[in-house]
Amino acid sequence: MVWGVAAALVANLLFSAGFVIEKRALSTLPPLSAGRPARLVLHLLRSPLWILGAAALLLGFAAQLLVYRTLPLVAAQGLFVTGLVMLLLLSALFLGERASGRERRGMVAIVAALVMLVLSLRDSTETISRAAPVPVLLALCVPSLALGAVLFLSAERRSRRRHRLPTAGVPYGVAVGFLYGVSSLAIKGVAGLLDPADPAGTARAVLTSPYPWILLFTGSTGLVFSQTALQRCRASLIVPVVTTVNFLFATVSGTVAFDEPLPTEPLRLGLRLGGAVVAVAVLVALPRHEPGADADAGTRALPAAPAPARAALPPGPSASADPDLPALPPAGRPLSATLRPAPPEHAPERP
User: Taken in order 30, 31, 37, 39, is the CA torsion positive or negative?
Assistant: First the structure.
């Protein structure tokens, strides 16, 4: 249990650092679009800073393998949620992002959830499942992946509307959270197939299972979706939403797919379920739009007042638009000196 908790904390640090580094790199890149995935990936691979952040995330996924081998799925996911506190601190230090009061209270609630989940692991002798039935796994994953894609595309359409409120990233985070939740189930399945004593057998078992193919899809799609959302929204808000949705989906679906029973002791059961309830409350309480977005959107919706008309004064006699009209006199010369009646073209002869 101790190794599992330590590995979870290391994974949290790697994930938080990776997201912050990627966000810093994305701020220097041109606007990304999920509709052009090849162009998006090309921009990312040209950024050494982004590659460093992606490497940190990959190491975090590797640390997850140890966590899933030593801790139950619900407890492991609950520990991953606590990485939100690290992310909040790092984003404030290196990105200059300031969380709102509601978001700070949410982080405090996340710390409370961490304490509850760790206490639920005390003297734990729970069964840790190694595999899930393939039909059950696919029945849970395929609709969730489709739902995540639909939510993301819907958020993209709303972002193109005129006079819209600037989104804080919650719709994007929910969509990416479903993808990462499915990815968590696949990582859990791969962790159960690992056998250090038989590398060849491990490779054969992994490749003949659906887990690597699920990871391939969630990894490629999640890369396009997450980087597009991370560039447009604050990391200190979108990553908590992703983590919370990932936690909820993985705990509910994983409990069904891997058939890991919850604790039977009332106190430990209450602590573990209470941590899940706190995570849901944090997600519901997060703001849907950036602070002050209502006022900004109202300002943008008002039509601009027409500028007062100005009488354009010609700079001098030579600038007259019509040569038949008299030009204005120079400064200091009376107007009567200029506006004199013109002599007739054919004056009558005197007798």
Answer: negative
Residue reference for tokens 């509910």: 252
- Rounded distance, CA 289 to CA 187, Å? 33
| Cα–Cα distance list, 348 to 340, 341, 344, 345, 351 (Å) | 20, 17, 9, 10, 9
What CA–CA distance (Å, rounded) separates 16 from 150? 27
Token pair 């004593």 is found at: 197
Q: What is the percentage of the chain residues whose pLDDT exceeds 70? A: 73
* Structure token pair of residue 122: 């005390």
Residue where the block lists tokens 């929910």: 174
Asked whether residue 110 carries a pLDDT value surpassing 80, the answer given is no
Burial call 158-195: b when 16+ CB within 10 Å, e when fewer: eeeeeeebebbbbbbbbbbbbbbbbbbbbbbbbbbbbe
Given a cut of 70, whether residue 144 has pLDDT beyond it is yes
**Highest mean pLDDT, choosing among 64-78, 103-117, 293-307, 317-331:** 64-78
145 Cβ contact partners less than 8 Å away, ≥ 6 residues apart: 178, 179, 182, 217, 218, 221
What are the tokens at 45? Answer: 């691979």
Contact yes or no for 62/8 (Cβ under 8 A) = no
pTM: 0.69
Q: What does the alpha-carbon distance between residue 144 and residue 175 come to, in Å, rounded to a whole number?
A: 9
Paired tokens of 68 = 């899933």
Q: What DSSP string runs through 247-291?
A: HHHHHHHHHHHH--PPPSSHHHHHHHHHHHHHHHHHHHHS-SB-T
d(CA 293, CA 268): 42
Q: Which two tokens mark 272?
A: 């573990």
DSSP secondary structure of 30-48: PPP-TT-HHHHHHHHHT-H
Query: CB–CB of 201/243 below 8 Å?
Result: no
Residue 201: count of CB within 10 angstroms of its CB = 11
